[in-house]
Design goal:
Shape: elongated
Order of helices and strands: HEEEEEEEHHHHHEEEHHHHHHHH
Number of domains: 3
Distance between the termini: 63 Å
Strand order of the largest sheet: 4-3-2-1-7-6-5
Largest sheet: 7 strands, antiparallel
Structural class: alpha+beta
Radius of gyration: 26 Å
Number of helices: 14
Length: 338
């Protein structure tokens, strides 16, 4: 719709009330795909999505303009930005002018279109909604969902290991291999690899540190988890499990329903540990300054199945960077000790 395309980058401040007795809160109003998006100005978290064709002006000609998302909806939005008010009105005019004339043929075509759209929506809209939610999720929302997933996993594995000295090394290792906002959780179980959760959390099992002579094997699995996550977004997988209804709640309310991820931890751990292709994975090893050989041989001690990672090791003839010092490595190995 041309009228809508004109305003795709338009934003304005407004005041939103979720319930009749609720407090007004400041929001940023912007145009989405045939929607008005109401977001928190501090975190960019979407608070509500209103269908543009359904939006009603409650006080025509008066300011601030008052809008509702539907005839019987209790939510209220107040705007005094003249350009945003004009844009909403222009889109409504475009919608009305695009409607065809009356008549039996029109009604027949509309009925057929409705059936077709209903069928299309059943197969296309839910997956598209979930993917859209994963694409636009801000870091704070991803981190919150990651913590929910970790809590579900801990129901199966037991709580993440924690000791003061080991916790400092966990953070140090996460910053060394992933980035300044990253977290690594060590679980008291055997995971046979690392997994990246939504947000900054990567989980490893005690098996990657207990009995290992050096930290290179654990480091390799952690890097592998990052490479796999770049190819397949862990948030998208979590939202597919939660389902379209829960995802819509996330888009409109900013959080998932309490039980949306119930059982997801057990389901996730039952799946094979994801692994990226060798070329992508070797790039992660090269950038982190870590040899890929120890990781490759942890997957297959003979090296036959992982020959590509061994022969193309970016540090086969050069000295890799230190992952952790001996004292730090010992502290991390003791993190699950009681």
């Amino acid at each position: 719709m041309t009228a809508l395309n004109q305003y795709q980058r338009l934003e304005a401040a407004g005041h939103w009330r979720e319930t009749p007795g609720g407090k007004h809160r400041e929001v940023i109003v912007s145009f989405g795909d045939a929607t008005l998006i109401l977001s928190d100005p501090k975190s960019d978290t979407p608070l509500a999505h209103w269908s543009l064709p359904a939006v009603l002006r409650l006080n025509p000609g008066k300011l601030p303009a008052q809008y509702a998302p539907g005839l019987d909806d209790a939510e209220l939005l107040e705007l005094d930005d003249a350009l945003m008010i004009s844009a909403i009105e222009k889109v409504h005019v475009a919608i009305e002018s695009s409607k065809p004339g009356s008549g039996r043929l029109r009604r027949g075509l509309m009925a057929a279109a409705a059936v077709a759209m209903a069928g299309l929506a059943a197969f296309w809209v839910p997956p598209a909604l979930v993917r859209h939610a994963a694409d636009i999720a801000p870091p704070a929302q991803r981190a919150e969902i990651g913590r929910l997933v970790l809590a579900e996993i801990e129901k199966t594995t037991g709580g993440a290991c924690s000791r003061p000295a080991g916790d400092l090394v966990r953070l140090k290792l996460a910053h060394r291999l992933i980035g300044p906002d990253a977290e690594i959780a060590v679980l008291p179980t055997t995971l046979r690899g690392a997994r990246r959760l939504p947000g900054p959390i990567t989980i490893i099992g005690e098996d990657l540190i207990e009995g290992q002579v050096t930290p290179e094997v654990a480091a390799g699995h952690i890097l592998s988890a990052q490479a796999a996550a770049s190819a397949n977004d862990p948030l998208l997988a979590a939202l597919r499990y939660a389902g379209p209804r829960a995802t819509f709640h996330l888009l409109t309310k900013g959080s998932l329903p309490a039980a949306a991820l119930a059982g997801y931890g057990e389901t996730l751990l039952a799946e094979p540990v994801p692994r990226a292709d060798d070329e992508s994975l070797l790039g992660y090893f090269a950038r982190a300054g870590v040899s890929s050989d120890p990781y490759a041989r942890s997957l297959d001690p003979t090296g036959e199945a992982t020959l590509g990672l061994i022969e193309a090791d970016p540090y086969r003839t050069a000295e890799p960077k230190s992952v952790l010092g001996n004292r730090d490595w010992v502290a991390l190995q003791e993190i699950c000790d009681q």
